[in-house]
Amino acid sequence: MSIKYAILGFLDWTPLTGYDLKKQFAASETFHWSGNNNQIYTALVQLYNEGLVSKEVQDQESGPSRKVYSITTEGREALRQWLLTPPELPQLRHPFLAQLAWAAQLTAVELDTLLSQYENEVYVKLRMAQEQAQRDTRQSPRRTPREELLWGQIGNYWVAFYQHELDWVRRLRAEVTE
Amino acid sequence: MSIKYAILGFLDWTPLTGYDLKKQFAASETFHWSGNNNQIYTALVQLYNEGLVSKEVQDQESGPSRKVYSITTEGREALRQWLLTPPELPQLRHPFLAQLAWAAQLTAVELDTLLSQYENEVYVKLRMAQEQAQRDTRQSPRRTPREELLWGQIGNYWVAFYQHELDWVRRLRAEVTE
DNA sequence: CTCCCCATGTAACACGTTACATGATTTG
DNA sequence: CAAATCATGTAACGTGTTACATGGGGAG
Fold this sequence. Notes:
7 helices; 66% helix; mainly alpha; homodimer; DNA-binding
């Protein structure tokens, strides 16, 4: 469960509640746990039991009490250890390729419709990634130039990925049409 | 469970056993169900119950009896319907980006080591994808030029993906070093 | 009045990976 | 003699998604 380390990373930045973390995860594809209640709250409990985070309960007049989590010294050490572990390769799941694999039996029009739909969806995603990257760089209050560079290149990564995808499908569409 | 449609696709090509399918899946990243026993055999049972495939049991003198599955007319129809469904966007899971997000706290040497490890792993993957693509085109006994084109572009896709990844990490490494 | 935000959590389900279990035949 | 290949399947576990449940406060 690498979500634990992602959480430790955010908490190393500043103390946060489960709800805050949920928003952080939802905001970036890099932390792909799509704003997932289930995993975040259970991971926080586990991290707490392992002593990697501490919590401060703030009772509120209305609603459930906020639980603000902070990283502990042990947590910082665990995070650092994880940072040094060998990198994992990306996992790309691409059901559309499987669809295309058998799509030769479609008519020319049907196939082009499929490709054009895909092209549009990718285009929308690309725009979203671009806006996200801009938002990130504009307000980026990163701690060091190194961190700034890394976050910049990460945002960049997603833009480039969808751009690459778009180029690919456009080329394919052209080839299929002729 | 889109694995069912992937199976139907292969069976539309030629009758196969579960074991054959397992090898097919293992051979290509496009069908990302990593040669997964569990899902293949249960999916076949389900497809059979739904009447989308038929099976011929061949008793053997030794070992378990082979079950050769063929696609039925209903199966062909289901496959065609699936081919026309709106395309799904790719899902890219990239834990290394999450690692990088917090890697600014590492020393320059540690960070470069990490990036160089990653570069090597991606390079290996790229080479594997290239070989796979070559093998595919060389022996490709595809049914139509359209199918040939599509399979070619799919193999191509994986090569381009890892190439893109390699370029990205090399650029990043250069930027971090200076 | 409805919808969204805050804030916590649980439950059910779907999907994926690894390992286990059996056992003959072939290859190194 | 060990190992990989053929060929079937099951079990356990881990991860990920969606929906449910509760309930106050504010905005449109």
